[in-house]
């Protein structure tokens, strides 16, 4: 079978050799319009509503292979307006007819097509498309219809275009295939648009798939139509499971009604989208039932008449936690005394902690120069500090600031230079730690150490000095007893005794701040003691000084020695009088009961929570500056001229108050007077009803007991021996303690009692007592010393020493002590 092939969008017609001429003639008549009533193309045109290509092919054998001739016929005007071509081929015609519509797709005008006699179908197809057409022709010859076949064709200008072709076989009245009809559409642009849309959709899908936020699309019924990987991770649910289900499965129950209402209201608006954060924070629900905070944005659109909603969700769990940490840190920072300055040192941040420390409100501080506001006192020139700060980026040091109410505070200041994104110095962070109380504590500690050191020194001096005073006072006393009352020497001896007594009192004052005094600590009403002391003081003060004494009713009792309270009043009133000087002035004494809270203890060393009797002594004298206040309680420190003060008065007061677990503070400014506040703990027990013990006179009865007297000072051994012998005792005196022990060991029962000094070379009085008691445990031992610490008294009691005497004890005290210990020993032996 000979066949002819026409290739244009894939249309083919085939016929037998015997019918080919007739078919061709009929086809030509049809195409030329001679058989306009045939209706073949009219039907095709009516059906397609465009341009119909009628193609007839006559297959003939030729030595040089198959030659295909094509011709075109112009259709009516409807056909011209279409975008398709109609082409017919006739092997016998061998010509290319005019077709204005051919220009629409292929770019060939009628003249060009007519001139292309003997033109191959290759004019319309690329070189590699011929085999494709042969396959299509075979299918047409077999009676098949090829629909929407896509292929490439060539325009006149050489441009390749993509066409979609539908080719159907044409049959005569007998059903034989006589040709082919072909519809071709240029789909180059539509395919380009389709590919562009596909690429856009692929890019959008990639973006959505790679998004860190969950992206979910739902329809008007809230059924999920898109569920990206981030949503899978966020909710712990696969997209395959989520697709088609309701969005409410991922919303906690309590939020579902509000969510549904929100979506409904949003769908009724003309708003297409809302930015992230426009919606209030809500909570999501993971597939495991865990709720978590989210933020969401929502948009709406219509696709082919269907409304779609897309929500973008962000899990803000970590951000909420970080925000909460930042909030807590900011709150803590606000409590700290922190300020931020710009590079001109103007305050741009003022925290609540800074307000509490300095007293200035934020409104008062912002915009002010910090150093002017706080009246900063620097440890070095400010220019030097600033240079080091800008060089190192930070600075630390101790500053002195002034508060809004004029107080001075010490701070450890730390400056940090902060830079902006461009590396330029932008602001200064200043953190100030209040050191005021620490400074006070350090000052108090230094004072206590100084007092302790001086006390230790005073103890050593007092021991040696008391030994000397014992010899002076004892010998003066014995000399006065040996002389007639009116002997001219007596008045000199009396002056010696008087000076010795003053010296002994001075030693007692020195010791009062170095160790607690032996005191009567029975609960006492302080008001009569203070009143009695003021009566004494009034007689010694100038008449120009007025004393005002006020007291609160129902004052509690205080466990204090009245004589020491008397000494406190006298010392402080005397100091106040000296501060007032010769001009008229006032001294005010107040007694009040106070309950001290914990916050009131700050700034007063030794003060604790509880009830106190507060004694306040104020004057309107000259006052004291800061340097004087820092040393006011130091022993031997005085502002008085030489010869007018020892510098021990306030040290004694301080020592007495501390010995009763009290506290003392002082407030003073130059020209504004001074106030001392003394706090004595209120007693929890009532006053004793026991009658006071009346001192018994020295027993003058004769004694014949043998006493062992030991002291490393020979004058004291001589004095003690003479005095005790006058009382009838037989005395064996030793300046060498080891020799005394040997004498005792030789005949222990020869001695009725032992009197020994505490501090001696080679061996102490404690060791002497131990060795003697190891030989004879029942013998009474009396220990004497010019300096006795509390721990010395405790050790003496633990060893078995009966009494401890503080030099310079009077002869009467020693005599009474011996009477008591010997009587006690005798009673023990009789029992």
Cα-based radius of gyration, to the nearest Å: 62 Å
Shape: elongated
Biggest β-sheet, characterized?
6 strands, antiparallel
Q: How far is it from the N-terminal to the C-terminal residue, by CA?
A: 165 Å
Helix content: 25-40%
- Structural class computed from helices and strand pairing: alpha+beta
Q: Are there runs of 5+ residues with pLDDT below 50, and where? A: 1-105, 109-121, 688-700
Strand content: 15-25%
The helix tally amounts to 26
What is the mean predicted local confidence, pLDDT? Answer: 77
Number of strand segments: 29
In words, what does this structure look like?
The chain has 831 residues and is an alpha+beta fold. 39% of the residues lie in helices and 23% in strands. The protein has 26 helices and 29 strands. A hairpin with a 5-residue loop joins strand 5 (160-171) and strand 6. The longest helix has 47 residues, at 436-482. The chain is elongated, with a radius of gyration of 62 Å. The model is unreliable at 1-105, 109-121 and 688-700 (pLDDT under 50).
